[in-house]
Backbone:
């Protein structure tokens, strides 16, 4: 799977994808709260960590752009 170059995304694309990642992570977190199968729970937690890491990358780019816009 090819990783998107975050810096090449438009502002709108960046925010849309970031919001989608947050939504998916939230939904997965809710599902994991009721998961009783240990193997499924461990896999879900790994996926959740990966989503959070990805979201942090997108958020850093959003913050970087916001600071550039506020500078001038």
Residues:
């Amino acid at each position: 799977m090819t990783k998107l170059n975050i810096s090449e995304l438009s502002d709108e694309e960046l925010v849309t994808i970031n919001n989608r990642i947050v939504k998916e992570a939230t939904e997965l977190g809710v599902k994991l709260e009721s998961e009783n199968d240990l193997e499924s729970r461990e896999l879900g937690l790994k996926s959740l960590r990966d989503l959070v890491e990805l979201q942090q990358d997108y958020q850093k780019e959003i913050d970087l752009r916001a600071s550039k816009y506020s500078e001038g």
User: Anything to note?
Assistant: The chain is about 80% helix and 0% strand. The mean pLDDT is 93. Residues 11-71 form one domain. The chain has one domain: 11-71.
